């Protein structure tokens, strides 16, 4: 009986100390029924380097389009700084956006090219998180920009060595707007984001 009480106390203590991580991810900050396959990041219209980031998400087979996958992105501003805002007790990155893929797995974000934070030698990055229905969210590797002056030959070699060269976005100009395409293949097995 004593062991049972100790086990119960440990479980209660562990549950109180470790909150459910799913509720901490910013991907849950917007209701899923409000999402479409296209969204615009705050301040898009006022930015000079407007970017259309578009692509297709595929099932783990790399061929079948993945329907109803939520994609969340957040990024620094044009100076490389995260614009943090407060809503009640919660802090969040202002430049963020959510989409949900359509039946063809397509998604589009209207955003802007983030800046470098040269003080901390940080490259231009967009930070994506994906979530499939009834699976935990997965934080993907950050997206980098081919034209980033901080993305040196040495950095590129390291990315290639790790098999991560697909993280680098190649930007083209179409109709006066920068456009980058990023297709994503879902991982076979997803582990909870910690």
Automatic annotation (TrEMBL):
Signal peptide, first to last residue: 1-22
UniProt entry tagged with the keyword Transmembrane helix: no
Protein name: Protocatechuate 3,4-dioxygenase beta subunit
Coiled coil ranges: none
Keyword field: Signal
Signal is among the record's keywords: yes
Gene Ontology molecular function: iron ion binding; oxidoreductase activity, acting on single donors with incorporation of molecular oxygen, incorporation of two atoms of oxygen
């Amino acid at each position: 009986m004593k062991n049972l009480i100790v086990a119960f106390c440990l479980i209660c203590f562990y549950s109180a100390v470790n909150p459910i991580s799913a509720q901490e991810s910013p991907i849950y900050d917007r209701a899923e029924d409000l999402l479409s396959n296209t969204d615009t990041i705050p301040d898009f219209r006022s930015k000079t380097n407007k970017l259309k980031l578009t692509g297709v998400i595929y099932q783990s087979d790399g061929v079948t389009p993945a329907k109803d996958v939520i994609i969340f992105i957040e990024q620094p501003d044009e100076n490389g700084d995260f614009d943090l805002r407060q809503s009640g007790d919660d802090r969040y990155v202002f430049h963020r956006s959510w989409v949900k893929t359509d039946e063809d797995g397509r998604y589009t974000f209207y955003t802007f090219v983030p800046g470098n934070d040269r003080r901390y030698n940080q490259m231009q990055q967009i930070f994506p998180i994906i979530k499939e229905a009834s699976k935990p969210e997965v934080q993907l590797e950050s997206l980098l920009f081919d034209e980033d002056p901080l993305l040196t030959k040495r950095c590129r070699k390291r990315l290639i060595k790790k098999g991560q060269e697909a993280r680098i976005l190649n930007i083209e100009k179409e109709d006066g707007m920068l456009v980058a395409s990023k297709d994503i293949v879902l991982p076979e097995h997803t582990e909870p984001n910690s």
